[in-house]
Amino acid sequence: MDNYLLAMAAFAGLYALMALGLNVIFGLAGMVNLGLVGFFAIGAYGSALLTTKLHWPMVAGWAAALVLSAAAGGLVAVITARLKGDYLAIVTLGFAEVIRLAASNEIWLTGGTDGISAIPGPWRGQVTPLQFNLIFASLIWLVVGVVALLLGRLSSAPFGRVPRAIREDDMVAAVAGKPVLRFKVQAFAVGAGVLGLAGALYGHYNAYIAPDGFQPLITIYIVLALTIGGTGTMRGAVLGAILVVCLTEGTRFLGTALAALQPVQVAAVREALIGVVLILVLHLRPQGLLPERTRILSLEPP
Q1: Is 136 exposed, middle or buried (0-12, 13-18, 19+ CB in 10 A)?
Q2: Which tens digit of pLDDT belongs to each residue from 59-98?
Q3: CA dist., res. 55 & res. 290, Å (int)
C-alpha cells in the first residue's frame, strides 16, 4: 500500500506539472490546446533516447526534453497562429496523434510498439522500490514547486499581463501595440516545455515508455484538472491535478464495496461517479475551486 500511495503521489505531481504547462497556454494566453500528450511524449522519448542511446546524464536529458518540447511548441504555435477555438483544438489534437503514430511506426528510433526499456532512474537498483518511489515522488514535487514559483512570477510580470490581454481580446491587444503573435508563440513554447519536462520525468520514473502510454485520455484528465482547480492560477492547477488523481484512483476501490456487480459494471459505475462529482464541482464552482483574482484598476483620485 505504501508503494501504491507513493506512486499516486508521483503521478499527481506529473499531472500537476502538465496542468501548469496547460495553464500557461490556455489559462493565460487563451489558446485551446488538446495536444498536451504530444509534447508529453516528445519529452519522454527525447530524454529516454538521449540517456539510453547516447548515455547522457539524466539531468541533461531532462533539460534537453524541455528544450525539444518548447521548440516543438513554438513551431506548432507559428503554424497555427491564425487558428482559434475549435480549429486550434482539432489541429493540436491531430498533432498529438501524429506524434503517437510516429512513435509506433519509427521502429528504428523509438522501438515501435515495443517501446524503450531500461530507462535509468536515480539510484534505481541501489535502493528498495519503496525508497525509490519516495525519492522520485519527492523529486517530482520539488520540480512542481520550482516550476509553479517561476510561472507564478512570470504570470504577474508584464509577460503574464500581455497574454491575459490577448486572451480577453487579441484585437484590442494588437491595437494597443502588443506583438500578439510573438507572445502567443512564447506562451505556447513555455507551456510545451513544461509538458516535455513532465514527460521526461515520467519516462525515468516508469523506466519504460511505449506509444500506448500516450493516449488522448491523459489530455482530458489534465484539462479537467485545470478546469476544476481554477483556470489562470498556478495553485489551482496543482490542486486540480491532485483532486483528479484522487478521483480516478479512489474509485478503483469500488469493486470491494460492489462485490455483487461484474467488473464491467463496476467500471461503468466508477466512470459515472467521476462524471457526477466533476459536474457538481463545475456547477457549484464554475470558475474553479481557486479562481483567478480579477485585478481592478481604480481611476478615482487619491
Answers
A1: buried
A2: 999 999 999 999 999 999 999 878 887 888 899 999 999 9
A3: 42
